[in-house]
Write a structure and sequence with these properties.
Blueprint: H1 15-38, H2 46-54
Length: 55
């Protein structure tokens, strides 16, 4: 399984868009941290991971 730790892209957003983007990215960050803290690192089954996350 490959893991992407960083993604970079150049965008030109107005201040209103920046707030929305930052809010969305914080939400993704919280979700990823939750998944990382909830699922054992040794589990590779997609179904097992989804079960642990969504229950």
């Amino acid at each position: 399984m490959n893991t992407v730790l960083t993604s970079v892209c150049l965008i030109q957003a107005n201040p209103k868009q920046v707030v929305k983007i930052q809010t969305a990215l914080k939400g993704f960050g919280h979700a990823f941290n939750y998944a990382n803290n909830t699922v054992k690192w040794s589990i590779t089954s997609k179904n097992t991971i989804e079960t642990q996350i969504y229950t």
